[in-house]
Amino acid sequence: MFDMRRREFITLLGAAAWPLAARAQNGKPPVRLGFVPLGSPSNAYDRSLVEAFQQGLSRVGLIENRDIILDVAWASGNPDQAVSDVVRRGAELLIPCGSSAAVAAKRQTSTIPIVFLSVGDPIAMGLVASLRSPGQNATGFSDILADLSGKLVDLSKEFSKPGTTVEYLWHTAWPDGENRYRATEQAVQEAGMKLRSNGIVDIGELDDALMTIKRNGATTLIVQPSPFTYGQRGRIIASAMKHGLGTIFAFPVAAKEGSLAAYGRDYLHMYRRAPLYVDRVLKGTSPADLPVEQPAKVEFLVNLQSAKTLGIEVPLSLLIRADELVE
Fold it and tell me: What radius of gyration do the chain's Cα atoms show?
């Protein structure tokens, strides 16, 4: 019975997608794409991700105002509203960026095709049935790396004195936050270290959390990757520096913006690739049949200027392994 219902759902979804394909290929009115980017249009890197996505659209032959209309609504701290706006304006395919926007899109529609980007664990968040066979109206690109938590813990260990407790800053209101915290907890235990949780609900709690971390004698902290910490990374980096703390992020751009180090997926690469999935959906492939793509390219950066300012020595092993040293 379940398989029958699933086949019926996929058939209906496929039927909904075929008119998009026909219109994109036969000179009909352009298909409206609802694109909800992370961050803010005032940030140069955030804008560069949108530009990378637009470049990818051109590469697959989807020309704006001929084949598609790209309706951009920046999440800017309110992804639910941004998704609602593009749906209200008639989006026929949704491209939400970040876990919060993807969950908002899935909550609002079970029929409009969704190609998500920069999502944590899409299974845990109810976006897909499995990575190989999403089975519903959503698929896309996950930013979860194998043993990401372990990599960040290893970085913290190399920057710290033996016996140091790992300080972990995270957004407790994020749906996937607890899962990522538990993964980090396990990685810390395997490394023979201790973990201290520093959860915050909003940016107003940041300074108090950082003061507590500093009082604990720490020199570095791991910042949990989430839509919140991505959008607030500038304030987190600046406030941490003010308190004499080096931040370790999972967003490579953070190291270019002042964090001590960063290890994570190459997001520009992902945003350029995403239009391949958009194109396939427009040509009639159901999201239910497109496997979720996992990170293929990662970056490791160390900011030498931040290390110097903080008086933190960068181990030779990290200098050798880094893809880029920011000076």
Answer: 21
107 burial (CB, 10 Å; 0-12 / 13-18 / 19+) is: exposed
Q: Distance between CA 308 and CA 327 in Å, rounded?
A: 10
Helix, strand, coil proportions of the chain in percent (round to 5)?
45, 20, 35
- Mean pLDDT, to the nearest integer, of 125-147? 92
Inter-CA distances, 299 with 8, 229, 249, 294, Å: 42, 18, 11, 15
Chain centroid, CA 320 distance in Å:
27
What values do phi and psi take at 142, rounded to 5?
A: -95, 150
pLDDT mean over 75-83:
92
* Average per-residue pLDDT for the chain: 91
Question: Strand 261-265 relative to strand 298-303: parallel, antiparallel, unpaired?
Answer: antiparallel
Q: Which amino acid is at 26?
A: N
Give the Å distances, CA to CA, from 56 to 15, 128, 233, 266.
Answer: 26, 24, 26, 15
Pair 142, 122: CB distance under 8 Å: yes
Banded pLDDT at 27 (limits 50, 70, 90): low
For residue 316, with 0-12 CB atoms within 10 Å meaning exposed, 13-18 middle and 19 or more buried, which class applies? exposed
Average pLDDT of the segment spanning 18-47: 81
Q: What is the C-alpha separation between 193 and 186, in angstroms, rounded?
A: 10
The full set of domains in the chain, from first to last, is 2-143+267-295 (3.40.50.2300), 148-265+299-326 (3.40.50.2300)
**For tokens 């194109």, what's the residue?**
279
Span 197-237, pLDDT tens digits:
999 999 999 999 999 999 999 999 999 999 899 999 999 99
pTM, to two decimals: 0.86
- pLDDT on residue 26: 61
Cite the DSSP H helix spans in the chain.
2-25, 44-59, 79-88, 99-108, 148-159, 177-190, 206-215, 227-231, 233-242, 252-256, 267-282, 304-310, 316-321
Supply 267's token pair.
């997001």
